[in-house]
Amino acid sequence: MNAPLPIRPTPLYLQDDSHPQARVCAACEVRRSALFGALDAASLDRIHTHIATPQLGPDERIFGRGDPGGAVYTVRSGIVRFERVTEGGDRRIVRLAGRGDLIGQEALLQRPYADEAVACTEVQLCRIPRTLVDQLGRGENALLLELMRRWQQALEQAEAWVADLATGSALRRVLKLLALLDRHADEQGLIWLPRREDMGAMLDMTVETASRMVSRLRRDGAIVPLPPRHARLDRDRLAAVLASQDAA
Amino acid sequence: MNAPLPIRPTPLYLQDDSHPQARVCAACEVRRSALFGALDAASLDRIHTHIATPQLGPDERIFGRGDPGGAVYTVRSGIVRFERVTEGGDRRIVRLAGRGDLIGQEALLQRPYADEAVACTEVQLCRIPRTLVDQLGRGENALLLELMRRWQQALEQAEAWVADLATGSALRRVLKLLALLDRHADEQGLIWLPRREDMGAMLDMTVETASRMVSRLRRDGAIVPLPPRHARLDRDRLAAVLASQDAA
DNA sequence: CGAGCCGTTGAGGGGATTCAAGCTCAGTGG
DNA sequence: CCACTGAGCTTGAATCCCCTCAACGGCTCG
User: Fold this and answer.
1) Residues B45-59 pLDDT 10s
2) Does B109 share its domain with B210?
3) Does residue A7 lie in a domain region?
4) pLDDT value at position B205?
5) CATH code, domain with A135
6) Which of B201, B224, B231 is CA-nearest to residue B96?
7) Which domain holds residue B205?
8) Same domain, residue pair A144 and A192
9) Do residues A92 and A175 share a domain?
10) Contact between chains at A158 and B163 (C-beta distance less than 8 A)
11) Do B151 and A156 touch (CB under 8 A)?
């Protein structure tokens, strides 16, 4: 059971004669960090009609690997995972995206999606058709800069994933994952705690090992699992465990 | 000992009154796959004077993590590795770049470089000052598209690194690395074979384990090391070993 | 209430690390 | 010319971490 996300009311100063979706876009709480934050009100007004804001539940698919890329998405809330199947035949999660992240950028290059994108938590998206960005790209330079910034950000996240989550002992990798998830904590300070099977797909370990590590941290008081799929972290104790781990 | 790379003569039809560097750019053997392949001759003529073509030997540094990003580079030949130091304190190679790849894209966003870039083999580069792309970006759309394409390519390589090189047994990871290096083989079919220490930094294993795996493949006749730092692969036998590995 | 999924824990075995020693080879200097 | 040296590679033995296989408990749902 996942509690529905709160819906913010439209600010009063925007309840004018604009198109409804334009008001939603302008009021978007992630707009300052979102892709279209780079656009002025006039540009926004030209495109708002084509932007959908789909909402998905856990384990619902956003797009699949190989699907024709018809749109890019901005993550407004929630966590999205990118999966692919290794040649060995097992599922591997290669990256996570959270609030403000841009996903499915391949679409802008008229390419099929490279990975399967699946919602981890309840997820709110902005769906931006590819053609929309195409025509904007002709004139607006701010958008392109913002786009490149996101691209680079995704790249750095992918490299950080290799450096952090694919390195060291099982305990260390779990600690790093928790640190990453902590950056996506909700307003009550709760994190999304993946199923052990998903943790295995992220960290290349078995469900048993993932369970053992989480249990160990739970016994140390560093994490308090709050089913379903959530937990509270004690950052200090986690840091202490990580430090004692590095010392060894 | 690394043999000097062959220098191609300038095609006859280009020996006109152009600037010398313009001729070099136009004759560049990787141009069709290079960033500026998207530009026409006129644009090329405007910028050629500012493009340097540095040449580096093995283990020479191209840029360091945190350096102010003054330029992007196209790899004309050779292999470049991206390193960073994990919080654990040990060196980790997070990606490789080869012919035609664009490196240091952070510079276009006026950011410092995210990783240390080091030449693995003899490397030839095109150095493209950031300001040059800035002014081109205003008018030329083809360049921007090409730029985004490369960005996406780098991202996909990073994700494939996680899926391939950070997954499975030590033998499997070594096999995957060899397959990757094979795609950068030179004209004689030789690959760059990293030092065991570097293999360890790529695959998160010890030098001893890396050595054991290479030795095992050598005994199986799947790889013939040709010091210094090179080897010849038997693709069929490598595939056979990989298959028998997956079966287990 | 039984079925099924998920998480947990234990026992045993295997693969990677750790620690250690010996090897090749290039460079150096007696 | 050749011992000496140090870096890189290889191999062995012991240890340990993680995987595999197995069993069990809590929970949700039909």
Assistant:
1) 777 767 888 999 999
2) no
3) no
4) 97
5) 2.60.120.10
6) B201
7) 166-247
8) no
9) no
10) no
11) no
Nearest to B202 by CA among B72, B81, B98, B67: B81
pLDDT score of B96 more than 90:
yes
> How many angstroms separate the Cα of B166 from the Cα of each of A226, B152, B154, B159, B204?
30, 20, 17, 10, 8
Q: Which residues fall within 8 angstroms of residue B103, CB to CB, at 6 or more apart?
A: B62, B72, B73, B74, B75, B80, B82, B97, B117
Residues of chain A with pLDDT below 70 are 1-34, 137-141, 248
Instruction: Pick A95's closest partner by Cβ from B92, B159, B246.
Output: B159
Of the candidates B164, B187, B210, which is a domain's last residue? B164
**CA dist., res. A62 & res. A121, Å (int):** 12
Using CB atoms and an 8 Å cut-off, which of residues 154-213 of chain A contact chain B? Answer: 154-156, 158-159, 161-164, 166-168, 172, 204
Sequence-ordered list of residues with C-beta below 8 angstroms from that of B202, at least 6 positions apart, any chain: B81, B93, B165, B177, B194
Q: Report in angstroms the alpha-carbon separations of B143 from A90, A111, A153, B140, B197.
A: 38, 18, 20, 6, 39
Whole-angstrom distance, CA of residue A37 vs CA of residue A140: 12
Shortest Cα distance, chain A CAs vs residue B6, angstroms: 33
pLDDT tens digits along B125-178: 999 898 887 777 666 667 777 888 889 899 999 999 999 999 999 999 999 999
For residue A93, give every residue at least 6 positions away whose Cβ sits within 8 Å of its Cβ, in sequence order, or none. A81, A82, A83, A198, A201, A202
